[in-house]
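Problem 12. The chain below contains 562 residues. Write out its predicted structure in token notation.
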Amino acid sequence: MLPIFRPRVALRRGVSACTSTRPSSTQGFSNRRSTSTTLSETVSLRAKNSTRACTAAAFITSRSLIPIGRRYLDSTKAAGSITPAYTRSKHTTVSPAFAAQFRSFSAPSSVPKPPSAGDAEFLDSRAREVIHADENAHPSTAARLKQDARYLLQLYGRPDVIFTHGKGCYLYDQAGRSFLDLAGGIAVNALGHADKEITSVIADQAGKLIHLSNLYHNEYAGPFAKAIIESLPKVSEGGLAQPGSKVFFCNSGTEANEAALKFGRKFGRQNLKAGEVHTKSTIVSFTNAFHGRSMGSLSATPSIKYQTPFMPLIPSFVHAPLNDIEKAKQIIDDNVCAVIVEPVQGEGGINLSSKEFLQVLRKRCDEVNAVLIFDEIQCGLGRTGSLFAYEQFDIAPDILTMAKPLANGIPIGAVIVSPEVAKHIHPGDHGTTFGGSPFATRVGHTVYNRINNPSFLAHVREMGEYLRRQCEELASSSPLISEVRGAGLMVGLQMRASVDPNLFVDMAREQGVLVISAGNNTVRLVPPLIITKKEIDEAVRVFEDVITDMESYIASGKDLKG
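Solution.
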């Protein structure tokens, strides 16, 4: 198994005495920078003003510690079989057998005790850490993962936890421990886990018909496509929402983008005459984009990390800086057949395209007769608070791709093309064996109808605004977060360059909250769209603890990079 970054440090929690004023409410997209002094100055000030932070910092600097996950031993004394002497979190669910296993251990006197004085909140967070620590997974987990590694191609860095089931916004592992899921299967599980209606539809359709291939019609793909086309938002610029637009169903985001790129290339050949040299084949993408891992979508993903191992890539792909209007005007010329952009970048670090930038892309594509492709694989289908992100910019593309939440975890992708593009796509130009199956399209139609509901989207906007405000308040009182940005329930915490976001991810998981990292040193929050204020509050409490742990560690003179 490939190595995953894990903290090899012993951290103690101090609680900041700093106070902050809640930022004013924001609407729609948000790019908010926290204003703070230098990292070392602010951390020192916070530690000086907090008794518990000083206690934590003194604990680290005064002892030579042996880190054992989230349990600490004084290195001057013998290490024995240990167990945390902390109370169980009221927010944490563990199986009786797992709890009994903890009680069966004995704690030597060398185990440091947390500050007393009846600090119930402190004890509660410590209990969360110990119970959710990776090494406190089910006893069989390590052996199972070792066996799996013998047969699974090791392409992912994953923590040593095996999840067995979920419900709503929570996941549960083999030991029965609950984890609040703000990763959402990478923005896939829009309706959460084990949704009653979706599981019922899945069971019913699985008992009828799962697969046909596209050699035959099925009863669900057509009505689903109709629902999509008829619900497309009408905007000022672009003609996607009009009669004659069509849908192509596939199996994933990268497949949807591959189809879109092919359709763009085909569109560029429309005026090619016999014997002419074809030059209208260039495809433009933008920095920090992520469009997929297959060869076409990878060629449109200008990242050395992703591209280098697989070079040479497909030719005639060029890129420009996101939101650089002058560069976009220059690079989109008569040789360009397609321009692909994410209205809100996900993998790249929750980076928002500006409306002015997208307007220029729309205008230049019209001028040079190129297609404009919006990749809404991650930011579409309710994630930003509207059915599609393009609605908030009042600009429509010629081709739109979507996937992730479309069937709440059942593999499916879709490409919507305008009438002008559709008339150039003919039988045999593209295809798929599994795409548009009766199983996937029935489930997808059910999920789509749930998301395409005014009250559902209003909930996403309300919870997104609430989550962003909480994160902005956290950023305003911590020098570790330099910026909070996002739209709806797609929020990024930009960490300072000296802080590895994977450390935040690991520490949050070991307190029972799942988040993921993204580009540009960002912690990404993409929870199920059904998340509640209570669950957001639970997550933010953990984020506060993680940030305070980090600050206490810095106060001891250590760094948090790598």
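Discussion. The first strand starts at residue 30 and ends at 33. Students who got a different answer should revisit the alignment rule from Section 12.3.
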